[in-house]
Amino acid sequence: MTFSRRDFVKTSVLGAVAAGVGAPAVVAASEGGEQPAPQPGSYKRPIIVCANNGFAYLEAAFAFLKSGGDTLDAAIKVVKGPEDDPNDDSVGLGGLPNEEGVVELDACCMHGPTRRAGSVGAVRNIKNVSMVSKAVMEHTGHVMLVGEGAERFAVAMGFPRENLLTDRSRKIWMLWKQFNSDRDWWGPGIADPSWHAPDAPSGAKPSAALWPDRIERLRQRAADLGIEPEFQLAAVRRVLFPPSGTIHCSALNDKGEISGITTTSGLAFKLPGRCGDSPIIGAGCYTDQDVGSAGATGSGEENIKVAGAHTIVENMRRGMSPQEAGMDALKRIVRNYNNDMTKLHFMDMTYYILRKDGAYAGVSLWEGYTAGNPHKIAVHDGTLRAEPATPLLKGLSLDWPPFPPIPEELKKDSEYLK
Q: Which of 139, 242, 361, 371 could form a disulfide with 323 if both were Cys (CB 3.0 to 4.6 A apart)?
């Protein structure tokens, strides 16, 4: 029996998006999700805004920024933390590999004060690609290097080659190969006119009965592969719901100088050579010293098609608030699918937005991926905190490729959602 690979948790939408980019969207009313609009002149500088997986590194980066440190260097201090952490499988060391079991990393940066940019894509064997993107900016006449050339450049600049596939990530990849490689990233994508949502699996057992069996078999195989007991269900979840983890950070100092950076290991089990939005200037990251900075995490292919970060910065240039600018970019993604909620449930997007005066926002297409885990942004402007992103649509997204519905009894069992 063939299974697809995505979570249909909370598929209901409590409204529809009206047609057209400028039409009103269905904004979720999750408590605390709407960020209050500060009064003019009340914004704080310096300030750092980043994806929530950078939360633990904001304190040191903010102290560096406040003491006069460069804005791009401050942002790198944030994103380098997850890159160095073997237990963060969304970036850098320990990132989940491509379908061949090889970790490939992407990053880009923009330095507002000097209006420069650097980018690298599909880099193997180099851990801190955020710093390599800065090196491209500082030591070449180019903006972007990819693949083998980017790796050779990094080595020439003194970055050591190292095996980025940790034992834990290797075992998760082996688990995926054995149980899910029949449903990979080959074939027409969701944007193809012939694409249609998969049917729920059929068979002798009802789908609700199949889920515990499938999860238990995967957990047993995880144990056989030597994955530690406390991480086995988390490993199973990564196989069933391949993550597309990334981290973005924008930093603004008290002089109004601003920079941004985005780094990622990309979509788990992707085709070799795939680059998402993270290394694309204007999609995964864009900074304009005159206006502000924006970055993204989520469905990279969708963000490339709307040039999300650039769109947001240009919206702010035309007078939109950070939140309005981000919502407009999200509406463009919705428009690309003609408001088709069936397709939109197979993608998600979070934007991290910082204006030159210190105003900021975090917006997302959906409230979160799973129940109880809303999209969040991390902020430090003298006070360190995490805030829920303001969603365009109510409900939870379903990652792509699709997966059959999880029965209600398993939704309520938090251990299956780790």
A: 361
Tell me which of 5-9, 76-80, 109-113, 323-327 is least confident.
5-9
Q: Mind telling me the catalytic residues?
A: 246
Cα–Cα distance for residue pair 23/346, rounded to 1 Å: 22
Sign of CA dihedral 391, 394, 396, 397: negative
The pair phi, psi for residue 290, each rounded to 5°, is -80, -20
pLDDT, tens digit (0-9, with 9 covering 90-100), for 301-331: 999 999 999 999 999 999 999 999 999 999 9
pLDDT at residue 197 above 80?
A: no
CA distance 94 to 127: 9
Tokens of 162: 């190292």
Strand pairing report for 116-123 and 349-355: unpaired
User: DSSP of 46-83, one letter per residue?
Assistant: SEEEEEGGGGGGHHHHHHHHHTT--HHHHHHHHHHHHH
User: What pLDDT was estimated at residue 46?
Assistant: 98
What is the reported pLDDT for 10? Answer: 32
What lies within 8 Å, CB to CB, of 42 at 6+ separation is: none
CB 65 within 8 A of CB 44: no
In which band, very low, low, confident or very high, does the pLDDT at 4 lie, cut at 50, 70 and 90?
very low
Query: Per-residue pLDDT for 62 more than 80?
Result: yes
- pLDDT tens digit string along 215-238? 788 888 888 889 888 888 888 877
pTM of the shown model: 0.82
Q: Is 305 exposed, middle or buried (0-12, 13-18, 19+ CB in 10 A)?
A: middle
Name residue 222's amino acid: A
How many Cβ atoms sit within 10 Å of the Cβ of residue 93?
23
Peptide bond into 46 cis (omega under 30): yes
Q: Check residue 181 and give its pLDDT.
A: 59
Q: Is 227 exposed, middle or buried (0-12, 13-18, 19+ CB in 10 A)?
A: buried
| Count of beta carbons in the 10 Å neighbourhood of residue 241 | 19
Residue with tokens 């992407």: 106
Instruction: Give every CB contact of residue 31 below 8 A, 6+ residues apart in sequence.
Output: none
* Cβ burial, residue 108 (10 Å; 0-12/13-18/19+): buried
Return d(Cα 6, Cα 399) in angstroms, integer: 5
- Of 10, 6, 13, nearest to 404 by C-alpha is 6
CB atoms closer than 10 angstroms to residue 167: 12
